Amino acid sequence: MTENIKEQELNDFFDGKSTSTISKVVKKAKRKTILRNMGISLFVIVFLLITLSLSWLFIIRGSQEKAMRDIELFSRITNPNIELLESQNESNGVFEGILTFNRYKEIEGIPVDWSNHVVRYSLFGGMSRFKRTEIQIKDKEDGLDRNYDRETKQRMMNFYHPDVSYSQIRNDLNTLNNFKDDTFIELGVSFNQKYTPDEVRELIPENITLKWYWVDTYSREDIKSLNTHITKYKPTFPELATEIYGFSEDPTDSSMSEKRFIDDVQSGLNYEDGKYFGEFNRIYNNLKGESANLAAENIEIIGAVVTGTPKELAELNDMDMIRATVLGVTVKPY
């Protein structure tokens, strides 16, 4: 009888019908195995998510820092008389972010708002600027187009290369009488030839503030192309302030100004993965010419940005070195 019961239990066990202790142990073991596997799977998933999140954060932060480095370095040789403030970062989806740089101009000690510089940077290292075209309005006085900053509606300066033959050239020194005596004015000045930085410092009147130097970074081919284009189409398109290169005057030690410019250009060559490496390389080679290395002797100035009152700037009238003058920002003292 006992043997029959055991035999029946074995049959029930193998048929999945056993309610004996052995059956319960096996089922419990199965549940533990399932729970353990689920736990391992969950741990692996959480671990992968954390790893991917940290990797994403590391890569996107690296892309952000690279974009900031490129913008800050390039801005030091571009954008005449424009200063960068802090940048603001915001996410634009999983794969990219947006950097916004607040900017201003300083006119005789007064800060003046300027348009923000906004760029989009990618998880994969790319960077592009949000292009905001300037406002263009024909001037009623001379019939030439004036450019205005889209955000602030302030005038944008233009510059005329001394080796390019333009069909018309603007001289805004003639308009200084239209401003009140206490107005502070920014003026883009184009020279009749190339000068050394020291020559510019010597020739510009002392009571006029010298803010920025326009450096001749053009090759012979560039000049030939500009002259050919003007001869063929007869436009009067001088260089917009956003299209030229140069450096700020150091108010504490002017002799360091061109040295910092050279250092900035050479620094740009250290980042082959940088957004503006190609432009830094072009500028370096054009400036260096046949010289072994880029030095202060290679820096030639073809224009400048100056500030002052109408009376002070009027001293530029009848100076042989002045080829053209174009108004920039104007501001009243507080």
What brief labels describe this structure?
single chain; 334 residues; alpha+beta; five-stranded antiparallel beta sheet; four-stranded antiparallel beta sheet; 7 helices; 27% strand
Mean pLDDT: 87
SSE pattern, N- to C-terminal = HHEEEEEEEEEHEHEEHHEHE
Helix content: 25-40%
Strand segment tally: 14
Gyration radius over CA:
34 Å
Describe the structure.
The chain is α+β, with helices and mostly antiparallel strands. It has a domain at 137-331. The longest helix has 55 residues, at 21-75. The model has no long low-confidence stretch (mean pLDDT 87). Strand 6 and strand 7 form a beta hairpin. The protein contains 7 helices and 14 strands. This is Sigma factor regulator C-terminal domain-containing protein. Residues 177-328 form the Sigma factor regulator C-terminal domain. The chain crosses the membrane at residues 38-59. Pfam families: Sigma_reg_C, Sigma_reg_N.
In short:
This protein is an alpha+beta fold and 334 residues long. It contains seven helices and 14 strands.
Topology summary:
Elements (H helix, E strand, L loop, with lengths): L1 H13 L6 H55 L7 E9 L4 E12 L2 E13 L4 E3 L5 E4 L6 E4 L6 E2 L1 E2 L24 E12 L1 H7 L5 E7 L4 H14 L5 E2 L5 E3 L8 H12 L8 H12 L12 E8 L1 H4 L8 E10 L3
Antiparallel strand pairs: 1-2, 2-3, 3-4, 5-6, 6-7, 8-11, 9-13, 9-14, 10-12, 10-13
Organism: Viridibacillus arvi
Protein name: Sigma factor regulator C-terminal domain-containing protein
Keywords: Membrane, Transmembrane, Transmembrane helix
